[in-house]
Amino acid sequence: MSNTVLLFFSPDTKIELEPSLPVPSIRVSGTINENSDLTIMTWVVNKLRNKVERLNFELSHLTHITTFGIENWVKSAKQLSLIAPSSYHQVRENFLDHWNAKMDFFSFGALSKGIRLESVEAPYFCSSCQKERMSLIRTDDLKQNGDHTIAPTVSCEQCKVPMRFSWIESEYFRFLRKHPSC
Asked: Cα separation of 108 and 85, whole Å?
């Protein structure tokens, strides 16, 4: 990120802002837990309120989020969704696990209309290499067949063989059923 502003730093967490208007980006690194002060994101975005059309959250460096961390995130996400819609990019598996588990929180009014998951990590298995690999997929590439979600085909980076999705797709991508705006 160029022109990056450090919003929050602790031994566990770093939150940075790239204030590119009208779509600023917030990058979260490390662990979000009970000690992570996420209110600073809301405070800064509120100061830019009339200039922000959408927020981008870049989560590729978010290595872990605890149960308390997701509670803090939900509170901040609710407040931010009242200011501007948000796009989440490179959502890690751990965050998605909590997202699916806390689905009731994400179904609240403005929040359910204000968040879009653009890309998520997904587990695939390469039968040739005999290894599970996480692949970044765009949520637009997911297909719906009734209640069943179909993950896109992904080839192994090492051997180029098509891999199979290694989880129950409808469970892993449950956020799509309960939160179709994602």
From this structure: 14
- Please tell us whether the domain made up of 5-117 is placed in CATH 3.30.750.24: yes
The answer to whether 141 and 169 have CB atoms below 8 angstroms apart is no
Taking the C-alpha atoms of residue 57 and residue 76, their distance in angstroms, rounded to an integer, is: 12
- In degrees, rounded to 5, the angle at the alpha carbon of residue 177 between the alpha carbons of residues 174 and 179 is 95
Sequence ranges of the domains in the chain: 5-117
Binning pLDDT at 50, 70 and 90, where does residue 75 land?
A: confident
Q: Is the pLDDT of residue 15 over 80?
A: yes
- Is the peptide bond between 123 and the residue preceding it cis, with omega within 30 degrees of 0? no
In terms of phi and psi (left: phi > 0; alpha: psi -120 to 50; beta: otherwise), the region of 114 is alpha
pLDDT in tens, 126-180: 999 999 999 999 999 988 887 788 999 999 999 999 999 999 888 888 876 655 5
Q: How far apart are CA 91 and CA 61, in angstroms?
A: 9
Length of the chain: 182
How far is 140 from 120, CA to CA, in rounded Å? 11
